[in-house]
Amino acid sequence: MSERKAPLDGIRVLDLSRVLAGPWCSQNLADLGADVIKVERPGTGDDTRGWGPPYLKDSEGKDTSEAAYFLSTNRNKRSIAIDIATAEGAELVRQIAVHCDILIENFKVGGLRKYGLDYERIKEINPRLIYCSITGFGQTGPKASLPGYDFMIQGMGGLMSITGERDDLPGGGPQKAGVAVTDLFTGMYATIAVLGALQERHRSGLGQHIDLALLDCHVAMLANQTLNYMTSGVAPVRAGNAHQNVVPYQVFAASDGHLIVAVGNDGQYRAYCQVLGRPDLASHPDYATNSLRLVNRKSLIPELESIMKTRKRDEWIEALQKAGVPCGPINNIKQVFEDPQVQARELWRTIPHPLAGTTPTTANPIRYSETPIQYRMAPPLLGQHTEQILEELGLKSPQEG
Q1: Domain count, the chain
Q2: Which end of the chain has fewer CB atoms at under 10 Å, N or C?
């Protein structure tokens, strides 16, 4: 029997995006087997190529030109250097688009129209093309023309109002997430949207335009927090490392460090109290159910905090895990990759790299039983595949034409 091909084998993606949200989507598609052609500005390329240090080091320990940020989101792609601001460059992109199934771009609304690379123009030459536009605020509305960046959307979209320590405690106040979650969620929504449109094309034979906004995706991913407001009329506030809807579900200080206890139901709470040596806290009429614990959080949590300080972190973790109570340490990223579970799942991978010999990459978390993710190519050097791509498509570079 022949091997089954990757899910997106035979699909070609024209990637006009840069930085994170768009490239995160196109990396997902590349990991699934699509041929992703990344169009970059000659000389400078994707902005994130310069977002260092840190840079990838060569065999002698010296910095290469490849920033870690760029490496994190551009594997399995090929790079072609084209100046779309020139008539010749824009025409070349149009010619490539004829041969593609998907186009991803994150220019400002209307930004590609002056180059003749907007959806309506591309649709004329390739009606089967799925054209995904990622902007800060979408194609419509009073803010459509404004630029949008992850950090500002985290503020505008409400995340920073519910992230960080409580305002009445030291260190309270607005706090962003440690990674660009708005960009990453938008990239994931873009991936889903593209795959959905690809499936619909099997029926209609036609492509379509996808309008994705950072703000829309950000508000959508707030999940239970938006529904907490919608159903109560009360806007959630910062709760530090505690949960808005579940108690106890937070960080506790042990005698030598901190751990997370994530009690998700009343059965786990009873097991937790047994480990603490306080079964009375499980049967107490104020704490017997999660709803009661939420209402009486202020009296319960100090009781639990005082008990948790009496033993070492790892002692608590061992005892709680044996009792089936979800818990764990708070690792730094070095400790993450030292975790035996992370190592067993092979989340640290390496790919051959033309400048450094190899480059590390974080494994894609998708685990197919029959068509596993292939780490085919390192993030490309700027323009590395220009001649190869043009030759494959029977096209000439502007210099040749």
Answers
A1: 2
A2: N
